[in-house]
Amino acid sequence: MLYPNTLEQKLGFDKIRELLKQACISPLGQDYVDKIRFTDNYSLIDKLLRQTAEFKQIVQYETEFPQSNYIDVREQLTKARIEGLALTEEDFFDLKLTLKTVQACLTFLAKRDEGRTGDGQFPFLKELAGPVALDPHLVNLLDRIIDDRGRVRDSASPELARIRKQIIAEQAHLRKQLDSILRQARQNGWIPDDMSLTVREGRLVIPVSAEHKRKIKGIVHDESNTGQTVFLEPAEVFDANNEIRELEYAERREIFRILLELTNTLRPHLEGLKKALNFLAQIDFIRAKARLALQIGAEMPTLHNRPFVNWTDVRHPLLFLSLQKTEGKKVVPLTARLDENGRILIISGPNAGGKSIALKTFGLVQYMLQCGLLVPMADFSEMGVFQNLFIDIGDEQSLENDLSTYSSHLTAMKQFMVGANKRTLFLIDEFGTGTEPGLGGAIAEAILEDLNKSGAYGVINTHYTNLKVFADKTDGLVNGAMRFDSEHLEPLYQLEIGRPGSSFALEIAQKIGLPKGVINRAKEKLGTQQVNFEKLIKELDIEKKVFAEKNIEVGINQRKLAQQLAEYTALKTKLDNEQKQLLNDAKQKAKALVQEANQRIENTIREIREVKADKEITREIRQELQQFEQKALKPEVVAAPAKPKEEYESATGPIGAGDYVRIQGQTAVGQVLAIRGKDAEISIGDLKSNVKLNRLEKVSRRVFKEAVGETEKPRMQGMDLNEKMMNFSFNLDIRGKRGEEAIVEVDQFFDNALMLGYPELRIVHGKGDGILRNLVRTHLRRYKQVARMEDEHADRGGAGVTIVKMRG
Q: 571 lies in a domain?
């Protein structure tokens, strides 16, 4: 149910209809625009949105889709139903072009399904083509009979070919005769030199001066405007002209016969042609919706089959288009959420602060969605479906019904309370105004209490303090405020949910320049309670800004802590692995030594027995065993090999591009590629990295060569997590990149972020036409680790930057 009847005009949807009509190619699509209706059918809304989203891709990226000859041939199809009536050549030409357009649309969709599994590339548009069964023989027949100029071809029948051939021959013979007569008359001076053969009443004639017209026998068919020249058909060519005229009549009869036969052939296919034409009308209509979506930056949000609002960066489409024409002005997007815990939003704030625009944005965007249109908001937003939409915006006072402004508001409130339920969205502008403030506020609070009990969802604009207090204390209600720069006394047009807003009436009056005494007396009359309330709201606004800055600092410190923790974890893991490896090596070596010692002891005993304990030989054997014990079994302290002194010596002088450097505390040596302020870009093998200059020490070329020689030896390569963490930035700039290059960089960036455990990433892609932005977001949706994506704050890049939130 919708209320009032003028809802579309009040929200501005009538202007959306006009924009859609302008985007249509033909009256076929425009008729569908007139049929747009609000619906609460979830399946239908979802299908309409997906059709438009698919066509949006076609408009953006496909150039092969047919974009012309969307001709309205409904009248021709109606005429074809009448027995004995033949369509004209023009009718068949329009029908031929239309059917070729339908055929091209079907071919396009079929090609996009080739080699694909599942439903193909455009399943919802393909579903539209399902009922269309276009007979290719009929299209070929039309093409065989009607040429590309819209005339019946000579080859349409043997008789027509014979007649036209004979006409050409007779016309050539006639022209030859007339040329001879014209030449003779010109020699006699009866015809001006600049005149030639012409046609009058379908017959070839010659121009003759009026004074000499009786010197040539024949019939005068016409004369010039001045009367000085007559157009005469000589008697010698009467028969030839008559013959041509008879042939032309025969040609017309044959063409009519062919067209009548073609109409009769067409008649059994009229139902199928009607479906094909309806398909073309829907295509024109859906493309108009897609073109409008691109025009206003609309997306398809996540749809829920229940009342729900979770909008991010929603914009009023008409205001967006209007400000596009004004240089330097942009729409400030709104972000809002209405759910079971906060169903009714009470918006307060100063006049001209954007409350009414915010309210109309809620109504128009929800109405557009439930009419099957994409909506201008972030694509990860969520929208629900409402059964009823009630609005009270503007003035409904009526002289006929004797309604004042306030009476009209109360009439609307009566309708709201009667029809409101859990699937209702109501919008009320300037709630309670139009009568004495005390009484108006009390009645408004009572109505609000009743609407809250109904379980309805809603948005209300008000200046009444009692409603702000009531919202703060009542479950299901939540306060919101249009932000205001209290320092410069300028509206920011930003909706902030969770706190009430001040009207800033006294501050604005002071800025305008009202006398200070008037303002002070106003404060006294207002009372300390109200003044303190307004002052408290103002102070809270300032405190919120301070805490927002503190939150940024805390976030930075948390990231530093996470970095240090990752470094510690990586180092501990490395040391544990090295310790385990050393212990394993020592155990293996000890085991081998014990085995060898046992073997030698056994051999010694056997040799002693064999020589029957000869003392001299026994002494020699014992000496050999002692030597083995000293060499192999006693622990040996091995000092680390001393490295050349110059390997650790730093070269002198400041570090510049081309110098060889080593990161302090590490053995890896690289070369400086460039110096950027306090950072240096260095190359270590195939790895490039940015490192602070104060962490680098300069080394000699000899040290660099020796280090490179070592790295060229085949060995297992490890990964320095500390270095990666140190040089990793959560901000990636891909502006100016081609699509393929950007995706490769995004993948590398995302892999590093996952490995290092970053909770939030920032990708700068620029605004432009939004192509790179859509490409990146579509690609990132494939990662299950992505929780959601959103635009950056307007002050820090807005839609030109995507913030990626990772799952915990």
A: yes
User: 443-492, pLDDT tens digit by residue?
Assistant: 888 999 999 999 999 999 888 888 888 888 889 899 888 776 655 666 67
Give the domain range for residue 381: 302-526
Instruction: Note whether 722 and 776 are same-domain residues.
Output: no
For residue 380, give every residue at least 6 positions away whose Cβ sits within 8 Å of its Cβ, in sequence order, or none. 301, 302, 312, 788, 789, 790
Please report, as a single letter, which amino acid is at residue 86. Answer: A
One domain for residues 371 and 492: yes
Residue 181 lies in a domain: no
Question: Rounded to whole angstroms, how far apart are CA atoms 599 and 601?
Answer: 5
Considering only CA atoms, which of 146, 158, 164, 155 is closest in space to residue 263? 146
Structural contact between residues 364 and 358, judged by C-beta atoms closer than 8 angstroms: no
Answer whether residue 493 shows pLDDT above 80: no
Binding-site residues from annotation: 349-356
The amino acid occupying position 95 is L
Q: Same structural domain for residues 618 and 668?
A: no
- Which residue is associated with the tokens 């979506």? 293
The predicted model scores a pTM of 0.62
Q: Are residues 286 and 320 in the same domain?
A: no
The neighbouring-strand residues paired with 303 are: 383
| Tokens describing residue 242 | 């008559």
pLDDT band of residue 625 (cuts 50, 70, 90) is low
Give me the number of domains the chain comprises.
5
Please tell me whether residue 528 adopts helix, strand or coil conformation. helix
Q: What is the DSSP string of 95-148?
A: HHHHHHHHHHHHHHHHHTTTT--TT-S-HHHHHHTTT----HHHHHHHHHHB-T
pLDDT band with cut points at 50, 70 and 90 for residue 661: confident
Give the residue numbers of the binding site for ATP: 349-356
Same domain membership, residue 136 and residue 87: yes
What is the maximum span of the chain, computed from C-alpha positions, in angstroms?
A: 168
Q: 344 in a domain, yes or no?
A: yes
Q: Is residue 296 pLDDT above 80, yes or no?
A: yes
